[in-house]
Amino acid sequence: MKAIQFKSFGAPTVLDYVDLPTPQADADHAVVRVMAASVNPSDVKNVAGHFEHTVLPRTPGRDFSGVVSEGPAAWLGAEVWGTGGDIGFTRDGSHAEFIQIPLAALSRKPAALSHLEAAAIGVNFVVAWLGTVDYAQLRASETIAVLGAGGGVGGAVVQIAKARGARVIAVDRRPLDPATPAGRLIDAYVPLDEHAAERLRELTQGVGAEVVYDTVGGVAFETALGLAKRRGRVLEISATGKRRVDFDLIDFYHNETQLLGVDSAKLGVAESAPLMSALVEGFDSGKLSAPAIAQEFALAGAREAYEAVAAGTRGRVVIRME
Predict the structure, then answer these.
(1) Which residue numbers delimit the Enoyl reductase (ER) domain (predicted)?
(2) Which residue from 56, 84, 117, 305 has the fewest beta carbons nearer than 10 Å?
(3) What is the predicted pLDDT for the residue at 313?
(4) H or E, element range at 269
């Protein structure tokens, strides 16, 4: 089969378009013919050597959508999708014509989505669901403030929160594009600046948000804490521009804030499958929408796909298999 592989860490130029043995099914694994696979910022960071657990040589790629080509009879020909913090790191990933995954990782993709659209869901929506639903347990009566709502994870958080009936306030450097799913769904917008906490409290009768999902972190961490109401839950997934942070510990414990870290990379492809399955109804019912596909590339053009993501392309970048 054709695949992308890297044998050393570095810029996207270390990626090679190669022939590798096609994986085989066994008693514990199925083989999926990959129809489409997205390129995430974490894929670019993986190739660059940011993850100590990556084992070389490696085929990268976390997200995929495809068709089961080998495995249990009940799954043969089934359209499936998936993501995982192991594929592309400690086991070969989705930037190949075929991928071997555990039987427990099989999850039927939404019928409403094309393979191209389904391949763009994984990482962003899994980390959004993990934080919003599993960790914060957001309820319909609550307000959630989403820092970085215009980004991939932030947009997924907005959609999931609205589907659960919550009030959503976007906190971002610039207003959201009303043509995007997140831009259409938010209830209010607050600029991400030194006045963000003051403006949000004006919108919440002075109490703040029950849940704050901070997709920015680092330079925005103190702002995120300031948005939370008493006993609010603050979720952190990143450390943009600043790995170590300072904050007022007295204000923190007086507010009884709950601080939660969210790391979807800890979930392998099998552990991520239940979350992918939980998302299916939302897409098939129309409550959730696929993000915009900014650029498509053939597998042979994977280097260019990685370079586009590294350059900060807004919208999803997807590799379409021929």
Answers:
(1) 10-319
(2) 56
(3) 87
(4) helix 269-285
How far is the C-alpha of 306 from the C-alpha of 304, rounded, in Å? 5
Q: Is 45 helix (H, G, I), strand (E, B) or coil?
A: helix
CA separation for the pair 114, 111 (Å, rounded): 8
* Angle between the N-to-C axes of helices 269-285 and 152-163, in degrees from 0 to 180, rounded to the nearest 10: 60
Q: CA-CA distance, 86 to 288, in Å (whole number)?
A: 26
Give the per-residue pLDDT at 322.
Answer: 75
Q: Where are the beta strands (DSSP E) in 167-241?
A: 167-172, 188-191, 209-214, 228-236
Neighbouring residues of 5: CB distance < 8 A, sequence distance ≥ 6: 15, 16, 18, 20, 57, 58, 59
The two structure tokens encoding residue 37: 């696979």
Two tokens, residue 64: 């995929």
Rounded to the nearest integer, the mean pLDDT of the chain is 97
- Contact between residue 139 and residue 161 where contact means Cβ atoms under 8 Å apart: no
Each residue's pLDDT tens digit, 263-283 = 999 999 999 999 999 999 999
Domains in the chain, ordered, with CATH?
Answer: 2-123+266-320 (3.90.180.10), 136-261 (3.40.50.720)
DSSP label at residue 112: T
Contact status, residue 107 vs residue 122, Cβ threshold 8 Å: no
200 Cβ contact partners less than 8 Å away, ≥ 6 residues apart: 145, 169, 171, 190, 208, 209, 227
For residues 303 and 60, the answer to whether their CB atoms sit within 8 Å is no
- pTM beyond 0.90: the answer is yes
Q: Please, are residues 68 and 106 in contact by the beta-carbon 8 Å criterion?
A: yes
DSSP 46-109: HHHT--TT--SSB---S-EEEEEEES-GGGTT-EEEE--SSBTTTB--SSBSEEEEEGGG--BP
Q: What's the pLDDT at 121? A: 98
